[in-house]
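User: Please predict the structure of the protein below. I'd like the answer in structure-token form so I can feed it into my own downstream comparison script.

Assistant: Understood. Taking the following sequence of 598 residues as input:
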Amino acid sequence: MIKERIDALRRRMSEWGWDAAVTVGEDPHNSEYTPKRWCQREFISGFTGSAGVVIITASHAGLWTDSRYWIQAARELEGSGMELHKMVSVEDKDWITWIADNISPGGKVGIDGLCMSMNEALQLEKALVGKSASVISKPDYLEALWPDRALLPQGKVWLHDDRYAGRSRADKISWLRGELEGMDCRYMFLNCLDQIAWLLNIRSDDVEYCPFVISFALVGPECVWLFAENSKFGADVMSALEKDNVKVMPYSECGKFVGSLKASDRILIDAGSLNYETGRAIADSFGRENTVQGDSPVEVAKSVKNEVERDGFRKAYVQDGIVQTRFFKWLEEEVKSGHRVTESDAADRLHELRAAMPDFLDESFETISAYGRNAALPHYTTVRGKDALIEPHGLYLNDSGAHYRYGTTDITRTVPMGPLTDLEREDYTLDMMAMIDLAMAVFPEGTPGCRIDAIARRPLWQNMRNFGHGTGHGVGNVLSVHEGPQSIRQNLKNQPLLPGMITSDEPGIYREGYHGIRHENMIMCVPAGENEFGRWLSFETLTMTYLDTSPLLVKLMDRRELEWLNDFNKRVFDTLKPYLNEDEVEWLDAKTAAVSVG
């Protein structure tokens, strides 16, 4: 089927005079989790990962993706005629270089400008200058090949209550107008769904695992125009928005409305997220001299959690700790009893336990339930019928999370299902050390995450081990489980870690064909003190799920690591004990027993 689709696209390319067609797999909002309507990369390649670029020419079909997906991509592309190109990280732009090197002089490269950011399209244009080649934007160019393409999502919009948001819609809009005034701008166009949801305190289920409303927003000096399907809004939500002078207009009329403004005022756009087509329309309407390209102030503001949000996250992790205690107890007992439990069975059981909790809304991403060698794929997808049976030996990895009304969780635990090999125990211990070392970090104010990434990698590097993904990503408050601008990864990024930012701590070790190990806690940046050397920051660990100490080679760990581990497990036990029954308390007490420090 994939070969037939590629052949059909090549025929279209010939009609259009294109030498190459690029599909980046994004939606018009630069989202990580893409609604079915815009899963264009999957449609044309069969690759189901969340990051990658497909390039089709007359003689070559290729997928460029980063190390998280190399194993998965190799499996999914098999037999499709599509070649895998390995990128070191998601930020790499090797595909642009490949096009520039392989395009003929005067050639044409087709893109869907609604589903590619301005920055990316402009980088591609710049790379082709030497070949006198051009970029042609044709929105929805795969439409004619896709007869059963999904329609726009129609999820109902609901309000994210101020008691969970910690700030009202009116307060946020007023703050943003003040920020714009300081930048000498009267307007701002918002493209990213999480930023719109945060600013207006609205949520929906348009995007799987992310409670977003498919929408654009234009913030003006007196009014905010929200472009979304009117049928999605009930009377109560519409009334609340109108009270703060937020006017809802049809999603399809966004470009036309912006083009009609012909404003003489300055407008702020974020070219890193704004799609190419809308960016051109804004520049044509406001004039290039009045179109200011810069980072959205909303991105940092939503990442720095206020006190209400911080308390909500703490509560959410207690909820998840209760769930995970019951889940791992159930899993251990089922497998030991000889009952048949597959990876899918385990994922289903975890979902049942979470769904029974008060204030549960949805999972925050698709659960990774991986046993043995399947865990060597960092983003393994569990498929019923093709999944593994969990056996009473080796390691089981579970990476999962939830949206509760007051916070979003993400947690990974790797646990022993029985006897382990020496290598499994060594990798397990080293990865535990890596996670603990980052959790204990103290660093100067103003330090970006890229400068402390090596703290987590030190125990691994010293033993000649490494992992290809980032060490930590931000987490939104009932938004996306992956959010910026902060991150802890090797790629250079100047965004400092700020008090209130919540970031994952998840180093890993993956051995293809054998096992994968990842320990993940969520950590919040907090003040650590001030002295003659300046202000200092550290981390508060939010996660409330025990860390299994039974596989550890304690001799590899130092006293500080062991003390941190014992303190953490004791805090987990003391926090969760009031919510558990007698059997669960007894089981968790054994799991959190202190390790001898020596």
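That's the full token string. The chain is about 35% helix and 20% strand.
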